[in-house]
């Protein structure tokens, strides 16, 4: 049976960053990367741009094969895990072969979560997680656009919103259905979301928030979508973008604990010996140690991958993963929205401080959230700042009370001046 | 991966004039648009100083790690390059960078970042305050890295000692056609002469007495010359083997103009044998033989200035250097090697001793840097045909207390002792300033060694 010092399952951002971290400390250990896909690794985040045609499908690979060769990594495609035997440090693949590992990283990411909608399995619908999904969606989107067809998007997260924009640009009539009360829930506060939503409405998109789909039924080549209030929409194209679920099917009986994702400690170790996990497959603890949603964020996946890789290789420089901070950069119709951190809770006490500029009609919108003089969150639409610096200010719990007004006025330069003094 | 150049920023020198940003805008603008500056100088009113946001060309660029489109990558030239064809404008790179080094430019419609203007950064050229510097030392390290390391892989030095750095880098440059002399001290202790009958380096090495290093090298060098072979005679000696016990042979060889490259690694005492004082130990310092107790308060005499003494010999070349300033050290090593073909070359290296001076082993380079920045150790260069020149500006030193407080050997200093050291440091700097000033404008540069005695007479009032 084959044996590798390190086996990395998955070759997206977390897996690739772990690989880099392992090689940075251990130049000689043998490494295998097992990718279930049949293509070079592609980031799910780039897929909307493949759908829109901005990216050619052959120009989106995160790494070329030669990179793996240079790193002396055995990179294998179409190698999906079927079962894990942690007691014997052994992995069984879908094709029946077995591989032994010294240390194992689970970075298998997530798969689209299908909403529990009656009739969904009886109709043709799309998801967007792999390059194949993107290519399929690209073709039908341009067809729907050409024929001025109707598209219904289930879910107003980043994937749904990006897809809706692409579809409307292609010429389709688009309806977005979101069960929560705003678009981009969990990413932006309600005011920022309202501004974004208004732009979509201006472009002719029908945005239905606070609504659920009750049932879908086949109709000609498309389907009919029945909403909870009795209204219905015909759809030539149906896209399910209702979030993701961790890809953990192969972990049954392995002893690796799974809750909302794989349970890990601050060094991304699972409860099983010699098994780590990182990226969208794990249950990410929030940095704020509260109920703030965490995980599913690309930069977080990279941090987790690095932490896991350093921990696996025994790099003494490894530091505990601080916990996830929500962080998004979102471009829509040539505009830009940025969000870092958390909003104030509804029943915020006096230790919370919320500053807003740019209400209705103003050029840009910016909201600062502070707790005990420390930045908790910053949300902007058409106001530029450096999300990376804001992220670091939050992680370092930097006292910024004295600069709060300057930060609201000019977040970019104020935060840069702070950065330059603190960690230059 | 090799080391690469970087742009450094000194907030103490920046007055916010903005010339760097204007230069960047001109360099990056095209007929279609006015570019956004890739360097941003920002005012922190709370702290009362200027700061900078610019790409650091990280060795491990997080902007690239978080890019979903593989549009950012660090190249072999060290530049984190942005690929317009691949970029999808998602701005995730701006979330990955904690330095504000890559940012969206509304005028250009995409993210922009510094590319160091293909090796000639315009912001640095435009900075007249010296706040921005293009640090190219990495190229030197790369070149040194390609030279053969002539010492065994493991040397038995104390943790954090910079002498291994000095030994390896010196011998790499001087090369294999060398006879090396290492008198008793830390350097043979670290393994230059080897263990158990095995040699510690890949060139012939011998272990003279503490007293006769320069004499033995004289004989060896002369014998090779008589045989018609061109061999570098190199000494790596401590300050005791050079300036105290070994001084008469060193002085004699220098005065005779022997073709020797003599490197003194000055750790200000006999550190290899348990930290006894030497003539190079500075005033007030604790050593095993200048103890601190009921009566003793450390050394009661100032150190003799060994490199200046060597200059008075009218050597071909004399210089002081520090491992905190490697570019300067490399340049001086080149010059010294070249001069040793013609006559006596003496290189004096300040070498903080982690164990004998009592400071954390991780701080060696920082201690060396602080010694220079406070004028405690002065960097200069003397060439017979050009006289003495200062290697860096010494007019605005950091307070010497910033250096003293780093070191356990000075922990006991009282106010009077500190004041003594401050006076001594200032006086030494003034001597150097005067010596450097003598040769700039008086047309004496073609006079040879006669300058030096004149300088002495001048200084002492004739």
- Read across the widest sheet of chain B, the strand sequence of neighbours is 10-9-11-12-14-13-15-16
- Report the mean per-residue pLDDT of chain A as an integer: 93
Question: What's the number of helices of chain B?
Answer: 16
Distance between the termini of chain A: 50 Å
Q: Please report which band the strand proportion of chain B falls in: under 5%, 5-15%, 15-25%, 25-35%, 35-45% or over 45%.
A: 15-25%
- Largest interface: chains, residues each: A-B, 50 and 38 residues
Main sheet: strands, sense, barrel of chain B: 8 strands, mixed
As a whole number of angstroms, the C-alpha radius of gyration of chain B is: 25 Å
- Helical coverage of chain A, percent range: 25-40%
Ranges of chain B where pLDDT stays below 50 over 5 or more residues in a row are 440-451, 453-462
Provide the number of structural domains of chain B. Answer: 2
Strand content of chain A is 25-35%
Number of helices of chain A: 10
CATH architecture of the largest domain in chain B: 3-Layer(aba) Sandwich
Specify the overall morphology of chain A. Answer: globular
- Provide the number of structural domains of chain A: 3
CATH domain class of the largest domain in chain B: Alpha Beta
3D shape of chain B: globular
The fourth-level CATH homologous superfamily of the largest domain in chain B is Thiamin diphosphate (ThDP)-binding fold, Pyr/PP domains
Oligomer: heterodimer
CATH architecture tag of the largest domain in chain A: 3-Layer(bba) Sandwich
Keywords:
heterodimer; A: 424 residues; alpha/beta; FAD/NAD(P)-binding domain; seven-stranded mixed beta sheet; five-stranded antiparallel beta sheet; 10 helices; 21 strands; 26% helix; globular; B: 462 residues; Alpha-Beta Plaits; Rossmann fold; 2 domains; eight-stranded mixed beta sheet; two-stranded antiparallel ribbon; 16 helices; 16 strands; 32% helix; 15% strand; disordered C terminus
């Amino acid at each position: 049976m084959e044996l590798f010092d390190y086996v990395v399952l998955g070759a997206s951002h977390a897996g690739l960053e772990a690989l880099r971290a392992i090689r940075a400390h251990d130049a000689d250990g043998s490494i295998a990367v097992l990718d279930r896909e049949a293509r070079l690794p592609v980031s799910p985040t780039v897929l909307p741009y493949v759908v829109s045609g901005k990216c050619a499908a052959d120009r989106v690979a995160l790494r070329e094969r030669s990179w793996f060769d240079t790193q002396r990594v055995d990179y294998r495609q179409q190698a999906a895990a079927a079962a894990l035997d942690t007691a014997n440090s052994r992995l069984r693949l879908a094709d029946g072969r077995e591989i032994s590992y010294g240390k194992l990283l689970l970075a298998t990411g997530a798969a689209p979560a299908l909403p529990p909608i009656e009739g969904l399995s009886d109709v043709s619908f799309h998801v967007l997680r792999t390059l194949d999904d993107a290519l399929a969606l690209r073709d039908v989107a341009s067809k729907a656009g050409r024929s001025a067809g109707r598209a219904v998007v289930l879910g107003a997260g980043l994937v749904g919103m990006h897809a809706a924009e692409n579809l409307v640009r292609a010429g389709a009539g688009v309806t977005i259905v979101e069960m929560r009360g705003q678009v981009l829930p969990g990413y932006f506060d309600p005011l920022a979301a309202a501004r974004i939503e208004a732009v979509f409405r201006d472009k002719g998109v029908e945005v239905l928030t606070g609504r659920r789909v009750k049932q879908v039924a086949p109709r000609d080549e498309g389907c009919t979508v029945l909403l909870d209030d009795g209204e219905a929409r015909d759809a030539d194209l149906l896209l399910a973008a209702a979030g993701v679920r961790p890809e953990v099917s192969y972990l049954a009986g392995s002893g690796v604990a799974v809750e909302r994702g794989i349970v890990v400690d601050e060094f991304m170790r699972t409860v099983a010996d010699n098994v780590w996990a990182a990226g969208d497959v794990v249950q990410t603890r929030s940095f704020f140690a509260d109920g703030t949603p965490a995980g599913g964020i690309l930069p977080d996946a990279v941090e987790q991958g690095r932490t896991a890789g350093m921990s696996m290789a025994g790099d003494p420089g490894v530091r505990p993963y601080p916990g996830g901070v929500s962080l998004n950069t979102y471009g829509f119709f040539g505009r830009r929205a940025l969000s870092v951190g958390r909003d104030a809770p509804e029943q915020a006490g006096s230790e919370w401080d919320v500053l807003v500029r740019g209400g209705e009609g103003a050029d840009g919108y910016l909201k600062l959230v502070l707790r005990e003089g420390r930045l908790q969150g910053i949300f902007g639409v058409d106001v530029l700042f450096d999300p990376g610096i804001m992220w670091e200010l939050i992680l370092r719990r930097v006292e910024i009370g004295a600069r709060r007004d300057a930060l609201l006025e000019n977040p970019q330069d104020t935060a840069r001046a702070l950065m330059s003094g603190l960690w230059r | 991966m090799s080391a690469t150049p970087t742009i450094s920023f000194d907030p103490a020198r920046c007055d916010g004039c903005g010339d760097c940003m204007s230069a960047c805008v001109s360099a990056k603008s095209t007929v279609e648009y006015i570019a956004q500056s890739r360097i941003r100088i920002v005012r922190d009113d709370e702290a009362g100083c200027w700061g900078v946001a610019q790409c650091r060309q990280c060795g491990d660029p997080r902007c690239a790690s978080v890019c979903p489109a593989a549009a950012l990558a660090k190249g072999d030239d060290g530049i984190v390059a942005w690929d317009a064809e691949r970029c999808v404008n998602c701005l995730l790179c701006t979330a990955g960078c904690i330095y504000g080094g890559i940012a969206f430019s509304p005028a250009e419609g995409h993210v922009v970042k510094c590319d160091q203007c293909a090796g000639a950064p315009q912001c640095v050229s435009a900075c007249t305050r010296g706040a921005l510097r293009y640090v190219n030392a990495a190229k030197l390290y790369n070149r040194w890295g390609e030279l053969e390391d002539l010492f065994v892989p493991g040397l038995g030095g104390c943790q954090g000692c910079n002498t291994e750095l000095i030994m390896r880098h010196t011998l790499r440059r001087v090369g294999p056609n060398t006879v090396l002399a290492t008198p008793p001290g830390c350097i043979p202790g670290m393994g230059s002469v080897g263990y158990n009958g095995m040699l510690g380096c890949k060139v012939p090495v011998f272990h003279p007495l503490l007293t006769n290093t320069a004499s033995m090298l004289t004989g060896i060098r002369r014998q090779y010359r008589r045989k018609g072979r061109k061999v570098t005679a190199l000494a790596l000696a401590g300050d005791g083997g050079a300036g105290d016990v070994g001084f008469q042979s060193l002085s004699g060889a220098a005065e005779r103009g022997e073709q020797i490259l003599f490197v003194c690694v000055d750790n200000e005492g006999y550190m290899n044998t348990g930290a006894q004082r030497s003539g190079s130990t500075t005033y007030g310092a604790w050593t095993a033989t200048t103890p601190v107790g009921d009566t003793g308060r450390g050394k009661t005499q100032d150190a003799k200035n060994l490199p200046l003494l060597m200059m008075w010999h009218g050597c071909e070349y004399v210089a002081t250097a520090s491992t905190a300033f490697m570019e300067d050290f490399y340049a001086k090593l080149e010059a010294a090697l070249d001069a040793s073909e013609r006559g006596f070359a003496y290189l004096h290296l300040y070498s903080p001793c982690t164990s004998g001076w009592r400071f954390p082993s991780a701080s060696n380079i920082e201690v060396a840097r602080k010694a220079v920045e406070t004028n405690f150790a002065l960097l200069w260069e003397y060439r017979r045909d050009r006289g003495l020149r200062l290697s860096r500006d010494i007019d605005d030193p950091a307070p010497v207390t910033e250096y003293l407080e780093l070191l356990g050997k000075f922990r006991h200093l009282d106010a009077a002792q500190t004041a003594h050291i401050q006076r001594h440091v200032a006086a030494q700097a003034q001597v150097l300033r005067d010596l450097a000033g003598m040769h700039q404008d008086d047309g004496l540069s073609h006079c040879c060694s006669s300058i030096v005695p004149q300088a002495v007479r001048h200084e002492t009032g004739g």
